[in-house]
Task: inverse folding
């Protein structure tokens, strides 16, 4: 496994209680000039979904359309990571009123999210004080119903800064796969993605998700990522990927489509709703009883002994059993939106 490697600029001081001079004993005898933006403390931020940046509603007209901001005074006390997160979530209209599905990173390159409950001196300009050093708000929901409330932008947006690229090469299990963003006809599998468009903490998981988004192939989000050709094993999903990895065309990261076979339970199946007529129950050892919104893992092989679509799956507790896989009740997260369970090339059936 590769060795993991890796602050904010503080703005000029801000006075919370500026005193206006008096004239002839009368306060504010002279006209009070409107305060410019330099006198008002703001919190600058970028918004990310798991597969990339989201255009903020709070765009303030700078050169980077992906940076938003709110007044620091709009955040209710006490000024903690939690209250700041709730204020940003509300400003952006994300479907997460209590902040349970979002994380805040002090800078976009941070490896670890800010600790819940920690104090943040936003009036003093310690975080997100300037557009050049925005904090990152990451919406963590991977559920299809929640993700539908937001839209992730493409790599075509011009941010006003020279892009930092992460180069990658695509593979199937049997060889090189063509990239829809190929840079060279002689290198059809070679593509690239803007590094700043990858959601923090920029680990193997968020890199794969961004590549899957811009390539338009959902299965890449669940592929294996290798940091170089000599790697013996895939990078762990939550392992941070250093900026040196994929920094040049000659040294791209490698994305290999996941293996699919009977008995390999690695296909993520999102439960849209419970099949009430079946009356799942804890005493029924044949059927799992996943809750709405839960993700189970299956090998994608249909069990034809039932009239409806049924898969063997493993739930989050490691229990194996049967689940309903009909599109009304479940959705494969590694399938493109135009695909359906019945037409997936990965599927086969048992009689």
Result:
């Amino acid at each position: 496994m590769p060795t993991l490697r890796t602050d904010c600029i503080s703005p000029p001081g801000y006075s919370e209680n500026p005193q206006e001079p008096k004239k002839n004993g009368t306060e504010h005898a002279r006209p009070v000039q409107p305060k410019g933006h330099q006198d008002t403390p703001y919190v600058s931020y970028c918004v990310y979904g798991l597969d990339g940046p989201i255009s903020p509603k709070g765009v303030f007209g700078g050169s980077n359309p992906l940076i938003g901001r709110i007044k620091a005074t709009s955040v209710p006390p006490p000024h903690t990571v939690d209250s700041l997160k709730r204020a940003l979530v509300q400003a952006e209209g994300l479907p997460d009123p209590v902040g349970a599905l979002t994380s805040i990173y002090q800078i976009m390159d941070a490896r670890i999210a800010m600790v819940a409950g920690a104090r943040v001196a936003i009036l003093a300009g310690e975080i997100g004080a300037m557009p050049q050093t925005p904090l990152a708000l990451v919406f963590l929901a991977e559920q299809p119903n929640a993700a539908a409330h937001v839209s992730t932008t493409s790599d075509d947006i011009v941010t006003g800064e020279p892009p930092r690229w992460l180069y990658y090469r695509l593979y199937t299990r049997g060889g090189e796969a063509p990239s829809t963003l190929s840079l060279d006809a002689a290198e059809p599998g070679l593509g690239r993605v803007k590094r700043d468009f990858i959601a923090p903490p920029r680990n193997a998981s968020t890199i794969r998700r961004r590549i899957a988004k811009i390539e338009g192939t959902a299965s890449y989000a669940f592929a294996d990522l290798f940091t170089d050709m000599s790697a013996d094993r895939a990078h762990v999903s939550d392992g941070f990927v250093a900026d040196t990895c994929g920094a040049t065309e000659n040294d791209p990261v490698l994305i290999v489509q996941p293996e699919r076979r009977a008995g390999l339970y690695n296909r993520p199946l999102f439960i849209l709703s419970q099949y009430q007529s079946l009356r799942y129950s804890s005493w029924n050892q044949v059927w799992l009883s996943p809750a709405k919104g839960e993700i189970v893992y299956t090998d994608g092989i249909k069990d034809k002994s039932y009239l409806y679509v049924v898969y063997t799956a493993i739930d989050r507790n490691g229990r194996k059993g049967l689940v309903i896989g009909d599109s009304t009740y479940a959705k494969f997260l590694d399938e493109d939106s135009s695909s359906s369970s019945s037409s997936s090339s990965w599927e086969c059936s048992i009689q």
Notes: The helical segments are 81-92, 144-147, 204-215. The domain at 165-256 is CATH 3.10.20 (Ubiquitin-like (UB roll)).
